[in-house]
Backbone:
């Protein structure tokens, strides 16, 4: 089994900051790309930021310059530092990881349970 457990969501005022964390655990051989997605009410889930195993990053245009994705491979954890938050950043944020499991051929995508981020005054 593989689990992704997220933490760090909450309510913040516009202009504020939050840091999301997502820790992977289980029968993991290797974690390839990791990323954060978000889904606002009535909208499709969208990619926010992604990071490869060697640290290359990719961001949605709407968060460039405000959000920073990073990972700690020793802890199987990915982070999302969110600064200058706006009301339009309000959404459920989901962690995603592409993982090679022990005893399985190939790699598969796994998802966290989601954490709510609300930006409001």
Residues:
């Amino acid at each position: 089994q593989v689990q992704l457990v997220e933490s760090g969501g909450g309510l913040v005022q516009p202009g504020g900051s939050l840091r999301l964390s997502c820790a992977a655990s289980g029968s993991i051989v290797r974690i390839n790309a990791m990323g954060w997605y978000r889904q606002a009410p009535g909208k499709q889930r969208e990619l926010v930021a992604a990071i490869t195993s060697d640290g290359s990053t990719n961001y949605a245009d709407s968060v460039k310059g405000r959000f920073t994705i990073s990972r700690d491979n020793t802890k199987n954890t990915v982070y999302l530092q969110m600064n200058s938050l706006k009301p339009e950043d309000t959404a459920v944020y989901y962690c995603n990881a592409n993982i090679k499991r022990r005893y399985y051929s190939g790699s598969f995508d796994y998802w966290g349970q989601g954490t709510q981020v609300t930006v409001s005054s």
About this structure: The mean pLDDT is 97. The chain is about 0% helix and 60% strand. The radius of gyration is 14 Å. The CA atoms of residues 18 and 56 lie 22 Å apart.
